[in-house]
Specification:
Layout: H1 3-7, E1 10-15, E2 20-25, E3 32-39, H2 45-50, E4 57-61, E5 65-66, E6 85-87, E7 90-91, H3 103-109, E8 114-116, H4 120-130, E9 133-138, H5 145-153
Parallel strand pairs: 3-4, 4-6, 5-7, 6-8
Antiparallel strand pairs: 1-2, 1-9, 2-8, 3-9
Length: 154
C-alpha cells in the first residue's frame, strides 16, 4: 500500500469532552475504546506499545515522527502489544537495519488501531490541561464522531 492510499483511510479520535481529532488509519482496521494519555519519549515506541502497564490506553506520542525504526523481537517488553491504540503525528516506513517488520505490520498483527496525521501538540496540551480522557478510535469508518462521543458518555 502506498503513502497516498494510506492517507485515504480516514480515521478519527473522539474524546469524552467532545473533541475530535481527524487523521488516517495506519494500524488494524478496528474501532476501539480506551483512555487517551500522552508519552514524551523521543524514541522507543516499540517498548511503549509492548509495556503491559499501558494496557487499555491510547498512547499519544509527542515526538513528531514514528515508524522509522520498525519493530524487532529484541526490543519487545512482552510478547504482544499491550496498548489499546496509538496516536501519532507522522508515520514513516522503517529504514533501520534492526527492523524485522514495519510498525504498521506489527500494529495490524497485534490488532491495534492507530491514527496518524493528528495534531499531537494540540492533543497533548488538551490532555495535560484536562488529564486523561476516555476516548474512541474509529479506524473503520462505520461510526460518526458524534455517535462516538455519545458512546463515551454512556
Amino acid at each position: 500500500m502506498n503513502f497516498k492510499e494510506k492517507r485515504e483511510k480516514k480515521a478519527f479520535l473522539a474524546l469524552a469532552d467532545g473533541s475530535v481529532f481527524r487523521g488516517y488509519s495506519v494500524g488494524a482496521p478496528v474501532d476501539a475504546c480506551g483512555e487517551a494519555v500522552f508519552n514524551t519519549n523521543l524514541s522507543g515506541y516499540q517498548e511503549v506499545l509492548s509495556d503491559p502497564s499501558h494496557a487499555g490506553l491510547f498512547v499519544v506520542m509527542t515526538a513528531p515522527e514514528m515508524g522509522n525504526v520498525g519493530v524487532n523481537a529484541e526490543d519487545m517488553k512482552s510478547p504482544n502489544f499491550s496498548v489499546a491504540g496509538l496516536v501519532i503525528r507522522e508515520f514513516n516506513e522503517p529504514s533501520n537495519w534492526r527492523s524485522s517488520e514495519s510498525l504498521q505490520a506489527a500494529l495490524v498483527r497485534h490488532n491495534v488501531p492507530a491514527i496518524a496525521g493528528v495534531d499531537t501538540r494540540a492533543l497533548t496540551l488538551l490532555l495535560r490541561e484536562k488529564g486523561k480522557q476516555k476516548a474512541f478510535i474509529c479506524a473503520t469508518g462505520k461510526i460518526e464522531p458524534e455517535a462516538a462521543v455519545k458512546k463515551l458518555e454512556a
